[in-house]
Amino acid sequence: MLRGNPIDTTLVPSAEMTDESGIANLPELTPGEYDVAVTFNGVASSGFVGLHVTGDPKVTTIPMDLTQQVQLVEERPILFHVEGFRGTVKDFSGATLPGASIVVVKRGSQAQDVALMSKTDGNGSFSAQLAEGSYIAVFFVLGFRPAIAPFEVARGGASQLSISLNPGGCP
Questions:
Q1: pTM for the full model?
Q2: What confidence score (pLDDT) does residue 10 get?
């Protein structure tokens, strides 16, 4: 993701940005200040890296390694035990967040086994069928910090997840 001045927000899907070796080629940027965030299947972010673009045509590289971030996400304890993957995404005040992005990966897959990519509906609600097992869900909306929710789908679990996002930057 790129954001900054002179653009307010520009999302560039990672599939279009990186090659098979993980090398990203950013689009041509006009001079200004940008934040660059990197995600791996929407699960982990290295945080934002400041990027100052000038009119100088020199080639610059920014190395980023997500291995440690993915491992930290995988090590989080399971927070929710649910019968099905459904719930609501809200902000800190309790207002629902329609259009929140959701990425669910199978726990233990190092974020490579994507089980679901979705968005919340107009009421901030989500629902999808997932097989019994352990997963990690990441919920994010521009302008909010992402929420990472390790959960398990199993009989006898709660009826739904309740996710709250706090204001701040997000990938």
A1: 0.67
A2: 46
